[in-house]
Amino acid sequence: MKVDVVVIGAGPGGYVAAIRLGQLGKKVAIVNKSELGGVCLNWGCIPSKALIHAAKVYEEFQHAEELGISVKGVSIDLKKTQEWKSSVVKKLTGGVGQLLQANGIQIVKGEAVFETANRIRVKGVNSGQETIEFSHAIVATGSRTIEIPGFAIDDKNVIDSKAALELTQAPKRMTVIGGGVIGMEIGMLYQKFGTEVTVVEFMPQLIPGVDVEISQALQRTCKKRGINVFTSTKALGYEKKKDGLAISVETPKGNETIMSDVILLSVGRTPNGLGFGLEKIGVNVHAKGSITVNNKLQTNIPNIYAIGDVVGPPQLAHKASKEGLVAAECIAGHNEIYDVRAMPGAIFTDPEIATVGLSEEEAQKQGYETLVGKFPFAASGRALSTRQTDGFVKVVADKKNKLILGVHMMGPEVSNLISEATLAIEMGATLEDLALTVHPHPTLSECLMEAAEGALGKAIHAVNRADTRSLLERKRDQKHA
Amino acid sequence: MAFEFKLPEIGEGVSEGEIVKWLVNEGDTIREDQPIVEIMTDKATMEIASPTSGKVQKRMAGEGQMIQVGKTLAVIDETGAKASKPTSTPEAKPTQTAAAVQAAPVMAAPTPANNTKVLASPATRKMAREMGVDLTRVAGSGPVGRVLMDDLTKTPGLASRPTTSSNYQPRTTTASGGEERIPLRGIRKKIAEHMTKSRHTAMHFTQVDEVDFTALTDLKDAAREKYEPRGVKITYLPFITRALCQTLKEFPNMNGSLDDEKQEIIIKHYYNIGIAAQTDTGLVVPVVKNADQKTIVELAQEIASLADKAKTGKLAATDMQGGTFTITSTGNSGGLFATPIINHPELGIIAINRIQDSAVVRDGQIVIRKMGHLSLSLDHRIIDGAVGASFLKSMKNKLENPGLMFLEE
What we know:
Low-confidence stretches of chain A: none
Radius of gyration of chain B: 26 Å
Mean pLDDT of chain B: 80
Structural class of chain B: alpha+beta
Strand content of chain B: 25-35%
Radius of gyration of chain A: 24 Å
Distance between the termini of chain B: 65 Å
Number of strands of chain A: 21
Largest sheet of chain B: 7 strands, mixed
Number of helices of chain B: 7
Distance between the termini of chain A: 71 Å
Number of strands of chain B: 21
Helix content of chain B: 10-25%
Helix content of chain A: 25-40%
Oligomer: heterodimer
Structural class of chain A: alpha/beta
Number of helices of chain A: 14
């Protein structure tokens, strides 16, 4: 087969790139190892959010009494939940298939190996082989679960996120090793299904990298829900005992043993750059598997591009999609570059977390004098009337010109609210732009407006003053308060 | 561990470039994405950024030398380099020692730079890329200096301006003793066209007078002593600019232009004074807007800032538009007097040349004064000799008695 562009991998990076290329008139083949939609659609983003929704509904029913709704005998059959989840996934992957076909993309199922910078060999599922000659290639091979010593994945005692999202029965006790995004989402959803959840995190805070106030708030929420959290703790290994798995961990206070029925390993994902023959044809692939690219998403071999998780962090589906779009446009000869200034992130814990831009610490490290405005959801009429009052909106701005540098939220629906903040930062908006824009009442979005007003010292529904002290000063004052 | 940074792709069909300037020295600690060298090709001059943090161990070629794409540009010692932030652009951290590691280029192709500092909406940034415009060169008229879509689409000549000021032209030489032919391109060509137009329209004549700059020199030196510690360099130019504005107000017919098409004389009641500046790539004339309303210190600051921008090729189109009169000064290196060419479509231009100690006669005695010449070229279609002479006399009077310039404002 001879094509203009071959795309390796049909996840949110690959299929988006392929569709855009099709729209731009290129002849495209997309080579995919297993299911269309990649990890995101099949074993990641979509299945986890479906289960998280089911868990949420289950919990709502159990607490409906307060609203005057009497519910008796609420039970959950995870087998049926899984069936429903699969139907959702199937609809989406089917949709991707249709879009690809509609844009004239050839779908080739198999594993690709690069023979030259213009030819790949595809090992088909039925051991048939095929060569594809191309002018350009986009490598979108994604990432895979990182394994650590002492916790080899055996799909029984130690499982990864993929298996965790396919359980047909809620484990009695689950220990999550790695309190990052994946571990926390899955841990919290199973807690709602009745599992006793323990989280072991190596760093001093849950979800390292997110604004520290949010991380602390999440830890408090876990405590309220009965989820045991160990931070600054190293997981050493486990032993199978009569009454379950005995996991030994090294905490700051000494070694401890955690009893569990299953272990979820979620310490991170490593890029899949090796094993495709790229190194052999001269592409710069690092020992850890990531591929370096420039801001046109080109590798050191100009006609070979790489996008998504395989390029490096942040490992987000929408980042992969964006890179896919840019790579496609570059290949089609447009003068495009990857020019994202505000990459949002949404975490579906409960409450949700969403962030975009610089955290308060990052801003100060970069030398900004910051203005911070914080507004609690507890002061929001909408949040109160939906019984979701945990959390807050925090806006970080440059004191000099009031430019919005970052927005960090924890609370109901923040995964949707963050997009307004993302647009604000991309457009170079100031606190006044946000504060002066009318937000409808009663909505959760008002909290963003109020947080911006708070940074300016004039929030109506909260008695807060613009906090211009540094994070260190606030922490110190808090200690002495 | 030593990382060999090889020269990445620097343009389609371009196989080598000339190292114009190293921005770092051997031994310097650098950050990922920090520009380390300026490379020039026959298309443009660009900055190459380091794909990794570390210490510059060795610069593999010197300034003025050619280097091929793919050859090692610099060796960077990465031990102790920090991890990149999660939200930064794709990481570049080679960790293996296996076969020659070639980092991918971390910068954009010659046209539009990837600006992280210029405020502009995504649509505006995309439009800039399509137009081939470098956003750092556009004056943003939105709040907080935001570049608006209108700034891009309504600033004349933006798209056709070269995004980097490069005057590198390929030369073809014949055997020794023969000729050299250099294609007329870029800024040089623009200057040639502008000068031709000026001489072919305005009827140039030049009047010269000598001026006693002694008093002004004392004032300038005193001002310089006071303001230099504050970072403001006071030269003769701010004073000459002020004298010029005040004299133009006395002779309003000289501050304007002739609209050839409509056959109308446009008299301008604003005073935008162009200050000619010589750069490596040619002559440019940035304009100080509303110079009559600025203090000497403000003029000094603005002139210095414009000169700086001119030297580093960062003048925006708006910086060079709207002038009503021009001052050209060659400083102390530039001869006795001049016959300057008017900056079309203005009506006149004044030149200041060398100011030096000279023996002159005062009250029957020979004394030493700081003397210089003012050369005034005017468009005789509009301004007659007598008017020019009076103008020059009034300028001279102000410069010789600088106190007069500060009586009413």
